[in-house]
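Fold these two proteins, one after the other.
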Amino acid sequence: MQRRRVKEEVFRYVNFYQQG
């Protein structure tokens, strides 16, 4: 479990969720 770029992962998840 690497906690380095959590924000990037969250941003990607949000972007994917917002896309549809």
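Now the second one:
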Amino acid sequence: MLRAFDRELTEEQEKEIKQLIADYFFRLVDQEADEIETQKKYTPDDFEKMAHEHHRTPYQQTGR
């Protein structure tokens, strides 16, 4: 994406731009999480319960 500007950037400028992009995507994810929280009417207790749940796929033993 930065190559599209066809301009030499200092290392500091490149770091700042990468941070801006990371912040942008963080805001998108944060907004989406807020929307889901509102739609599903999650409470702090719900989040606490989810933090301690395990949703792993059980391993199936194959015949040896």
